[in-house]
Design a protein that fits this description.
This protein is α+β, with helices and mostly antiparallel strands. It has a single domain, classed as Roll (Structural Genomics Hypothetical 15.5 Kd Protein In mrcA-pckA Intergenic Region, Chain A), CATH 3.10.290.10. The protein has two helices and eight strands. The strands form three sheets. The protein has a three-stranded antiparallel beta sheet with strand order 1-2-6, with no helix packed on it. A three-stranded antiparallel beta sheet has the order 3-5-4. Strand 1 and strand 2 form a beta hairpin.
Length: 114
């Protein structure tokens, strides 16, 4: 798998990561077999309302085995569900971490809360 090297934008006092594309990929779980895709996604991933999940399925932003399906698609054994998004990270304070204390058993670091 190719690793992304983040591109940072510094706007004091913050550091931003430039928007990038990210692909979520998951293999079907046994508890998902023979259930509708929309039912699985809306119950397992509750970050967004069901309308959002319906939209990404019906527009092809979420696929199964690399193919566009409907929200009523029945998930089978060995299916691979893929969702690609433009990822935007939360900015952090642009502070270099500092070692405050260190001995043989302990290291205390002051760093941004990220």
């Amino acid at each position: 798998m190719e690793h992304m090297i983040p591109k940072y934008i510094i706007k004091p006092p913050f550091r931003f990561v430039e928007q990038y594309n990210y692909t979520f990929k998951t293999h079907s779980k046994k508890r998902w077999f023979n259930r509708r895709l929309i039912d699985i996604i809306s119950s397992e991933f509750r970050s967004y309302p069901i309308e959002y999940y319906k939209e990404i399925i019906n527009t092809g932003e979420m696929t199964v085995n690399g193919k566009m399906v409907t929200e009523n698609y029945i998930v089978l054994d060995s299916d691979v569900i893929i969702h690609s998004i433009a990822k935007i990270e939360t900015p952090i304070l642009n502070i270099v971490p500092k070692i405050i204390y260190e001995d043989d058993d302990l290291v205390v670091v002051s760093k941004p809360p990220d």
